[in-house]
Amino acid sequence: MKVVTNTKLIKRNAKIGQYTSIGALVILGIGLYISFKMPDKFAYSLGALLLGFFMSQIGMYYGNRWGRSPRPDELIDKGLKGLGREYTIYHYVTAAPHLLVGPAGVWTLMPYYQSGIIVYEKKRWKSRGGGFLQSYLRLFGQENLGRPEIESETGIESIKRYLTRILPEGSEVPPIKSLWN
User: Fold this and answer.
1) Of the four listed, 133, 149, 151, 161, which is most buried by Cβ atoms within 10 Å?
2) How far is 181 from 163, CA to CA, in rounded Å?
3) Would you say residue 80 lies in a domain?
4) Do residues 171 and 99 both lie within one domain?
């Protein structure tokens, strides 16, 4: 299997995660300093707390997705290791983050960073189990599970538009399927 990865994007987003996390800690520290040394400036302390919290959430998202190994693209490569040379996987190069092209067709792959047990009940996907820590991470540290079946349709449409732009005039766009996990 051939692997095409946008390493420049991965490095850039990993740096964004690092700098945002460090900036959040600095802003939270400034807010703490203001709250102890200048109690009359409570509004500034509260503003720093809110901004620091917001930045820490951005830093956690970028850090989890781009900054630590194994990243989603590395896990996909490992999972698809046995595919032959006629397959090519594109990571962060096309309109979809992960696109697999080969004899089996064109597939958009949508990995989700989730823990616990994923169930489908009452026409909704839900994450179960794990106790307090997993509940906390679901609320603050993980990306939302959302509606994969709807998001996959959006990914398919974006790939169709992308392929329509890059394929020669009059070429037919192949059928595109989606796989989410």
Assistant:
1) 151
2) 24
3) no
4) yes
Range of the domain at 54: 7-69
What residues in the chain have per-residue pLDDT under 70? 115, 129-145, 181
pLDDT of 31 reads 95
Q: Going along the chain, which residue ranges are E strands?
A: 2-5, 88-91, 98-102, 105-110, 117-121, 124-128, 176-180
Question: In Å, how far are 26, 41, 43, 60 from 31, measured between CA atoms?
Answer: 9, 10, 10, 20
SS3 106: strand
Burial (CB count <10 Å: 0-12, 13-18, 19+), residue 55: buried
Asked if residue 100 and residue 163 are part of one domain, the reply reads yes
Going across the sheet that includes 105-110, the strands are 2-5, 88-91, 98-102, 105-110, 176-180
Could you tell me if residue 81 is inside a domain? no
* pLDDT recorded at residue 133: 62
